[in-house]
Amino acid sequence: SKTALDDFEVISTIGTGSYGTCKKIKRKRDGKVLVWKELDYGAMSETEKQMLVSEVNLLRELRSPYIVKYYDRIIDRARTTIYIIMEYCKGGDLATIIAKHKRDGQYLDEEFIWKILIQLTQALQECHQRKNGRAVLHRDMKPANVFLDTDRNVKLGDFGLARVLHHETSFANTYVGTPYYMSPELVNNQSYNEKSDIWSMGCVLYELCALHPPFTASNQTELNRKIRLGDFSRIPACLSDDLNNVISKMLHVEVSQRPSIEELLADPIVSGRRSRME
Ligand SMILES: CN(C)CCCNS(=O)(=O)c1cccc(Nc2nc(OCC3CCCCC3)c3[nH]cnc3n2)c1
């Protein structure tokens, strides 16, 4: 039988993203706590609705312990709203964690950063090296889209939704935040590719280390210049050269010089750290 809205009770609103509202919900039959994201498709064209359907179908196929699990979807035609039901990540998002450490003037410890690095890479591996089909690019990886579960394991979220919403007509396209994580190829109006996700992952990991993005500026032009130059300062001195080396590789301005997912996982530093963790 189809899942219906009254199979759930809303506990609270977690927040509002570029596409709509995220609510914490409880499944009545077993009390399981989940979230749903409400998207109003009322103003979407037929093509955009088609894109939304295909993006949601892609969400179903992405199965990894490091990607927010998709459960179901409910379509309420009366309200022209789709409810996408996903796993609830108790640990919140990295943007909140970084802001807290910045406020307290305390860096994150290196072991935690390596754990995030390894698990984010594995989350991207699932998307870039999908068995049965084309790679799914995240396109919008940033600290606010990386969640943690109870054991502080990574849960990469909001897949695909980024693409359907970067469609020119959707209101979500209006930049709410500064695109600190734009890759050089995007700044140069070249195409977005798998290596662009690697760049964004490098920016997220850099910000976990330094508690600020690698490239900052007070306006877009200045930001674009810094991104094209790829000049960023070393992560804090208390963090190892190994960590600095791996993150610096991800932030290579030249797409061809930037490692792919498989090259990252094959890197002796990364595989060495990974084997010590699992
Ligand atoms: C905006 N943030 C900096 C802080 C405000 C919000 N707190 S928070 O740090 O995200 C937070 C606190 C406690 C639990 C969770 N768990 C959670 N959140 C999701 O999305 C959050 C939503 C994303 C779009 C923008 C608004 C917030 C999930 N999506 C799938 N599973 C999810 N699990 C999140």
Which features characterize this protein?
single chain, five-stranded antiparallel β-sheet, two-stranded antiparallel sheet, 7 strands, 16% strand, binds ligand F9N
Beginning-to-end CA distance, first to last residue: 40 Å
Q: Quick one: how many beta strands? A: 7
By DSSP (H or I, 4+ residues per run), the number of helices equals 10
Measured on Cα atoms, how large is the radius of gyration? 19 Å
**Strand order within the widest sheet?**
1-2-3-5-4
The average pLDDT score comes to 91
Class of secondary structure makeup = alpha+beta
Shape: globular
String of helices and strands: EEEHEEHHEEHHHHHHH
Structure description:
With 278 residues, the chain is of the alpha+beta class. The protein is globular. The N and C termini lie far apart (40 Å). Bound molecules: the ligand CN(C)CCCNS(=O)(=O)c1cccc(Nc2nc(OCC3CCCCC3)c3[nH]cnc3n2)c1. The site of ligand F9N has 18 residues, from strand 1, strand 5 and helix 2.
Please give the structural blueprint.
Elements: E1 8-16, E2 20-27, E3 33-40, H1 46-61, E4 70-76, E5 81-87, H2 94-104, H3 110-128, E6 146-148, E7 154-156, H4 161-165, H5 184-187, H6 194-210, H7 220-229, H8 241-250, H9 261-266, H10 268-277
Antiparallel strand pairs: 1-2, 2-3, 3-5, 4-5, 6-7
Helix pairs in contact: 3-6, 6-8
